[in-house]
Amino acid sequence: MASIGIIANPASGKDIRRLVSHATVIDNNEKINIVERIVLGAQALGVEKVYVMPDSYNMGYRVEDKLNSCNELRCEINVINMMRFDGMEDTVKAADYMEKNDDIKCIIILGGDGTNRAAAKSIKNTPIITISTGTNNVYPTMLEGTVAGMAAAAVASDRFDAGRYVLKDKRIEIYKDDNLIDIALIDAVISKDVFIGSRAIWNIDSIEKIFVTRAHPASIGFSSLVGCKKIIYPEDDFGAYVDINSGREKIKAPVAAGVVEPVSVSEPVILGFGDEYEFTANDRGTIALDGEREIEFKKDQKLVFKITREGPYHVDVIKVLETAQESNFFTIEN
């Protein structure tokens, strides 16, 4: 039986950066609409069961009720029975359930960089499709739900060579005393902010250093500060770091939606997969991972940063649908 998973984060896109920039707001009603279209696109191409993360807005149940009332639901929707915390833990736990369920062949994630990072803590082998509904959206992309559902159905069919449309992504790994303590998919930012607080980091003046797995001037957020100096693609077997607010040369970069600011940025230093950067704190501070402060550190504390290709398997939606078309996946047999 072809099955897929859906993780839709009701909290994505609701942090303080909405107040200090001009970001698009995608509310939970629109997320429900996207999930509906995912289900309809997936079931039309053979998906028989859809597993959905439970959430405080009951998106999975609302989708099921609406599609049943319209007499359009043909597959089974299974809202995962798990304890809810109404926080990042839900994404981590739901992703773990889906990763360990052998029936689920593809997972669709609705959220921003932070949501995908949380899912990546648990997902190691199941291919993912990402839809941008968050604030920082370098990792996920704007994608029509119907198309995402169709692509997930093609992946779940197991009829095609995954090497044609799946890339194993990079990640930043942070170690303390040789123990892995956390990860980021796009960027890790060392900040002078002492407390985690509202989590989202938005004050450029507080930043000291940025580590990235990829960087491009077409991205929104802190990775663009590197991207305006050097472009690093997801396929490149390296990342980089820069110092912020410590030199004379300034660049203009899109640090947030509608916000293009001059910022002092050093020349990027390349970090290959075998390289390590040891950071020793001169004072207290925090580290933001994919836009959200997660790690507090003390003076003289040592942390090690590494770039690896141990991230999730990421589906190229265009390529999988092209592969499916070449194999007559969409042809109705008489």
Structural descriptors:
8 helices; Tumour Suppressor Smad4; single chain; 334 residues; Rossmann fold; 2 domains; 19 strands
What is the average of the pLDDT values?
92
Order of helices and strands: EHHEHEHEHEHEEEEEHEEEEEEEEEH
CATH architecture verdict of the largest domain: 3-Layer(aba) Sandwich
Report the β-strand fraction as a percent range: 25-35%
CATH level-3 fold name of the largest domain: Rossmann fold
Number of domains: 2
**Gross morphology:** globular
Q: Which bin fits the share of residues in helices?
A: 10-25%
Task: Give a written overview of the molecule.
The protein is of the alpha+beta class and 334 residues long. It folds into two domains: 3-169 and 312-326, Rossmann fold (3-Layer(aba) Sandwich); 171-308, Sandwich (Tumour Suppressor Smad4), CATH 2.60.200. The protein has helices at residues 17-20, 28-44, 59-69, 88-100, 113-120, 145-156, 223-227, 317-326, and strands at residues 3-8, 49-52, 76-79, 104-111, 128-132, 166-168, 171-176, 179-184, 187-191, 207-212, 238-243, 250-256, 259-264, 269-272, 277-280, 285-289, 292-297, 302-308, 313-315. α6 (145-156) crosses α8. The longest helix has 17 residues, at 28-44.
At a glance:
This protein is an alpha+beta fold.
SSE topology sketch:
Layout: E1 3-8, H1 17-20, H2 28-44, E2 49-52, H3 59-69, E3 76-79, H4 88-100, E4 104-111, H5 113-120, E5 128-132, H6 145-156, E6 166-168, E7 171-176, E8 179-184, E9 187-191, E10 207-212, H7 223-227, E11 238-243, E12 250-256, E13 259-264, E14 269-272, E15 277-280, E16 285-289, E17 292-297, E18 302-308, E19 313-315, H8 317-326
Parallel strand pairs: 1-2, 1-4, 2-3, 4-5
Antiparallel strand pairs: 6-19, 7-8, 7-18, 9-10, 9-16, 10-11, 11-14, 12-13, 15-18, 16-17
Helix pairs in contact: 2-3, 2-6, 4-5, 6-8
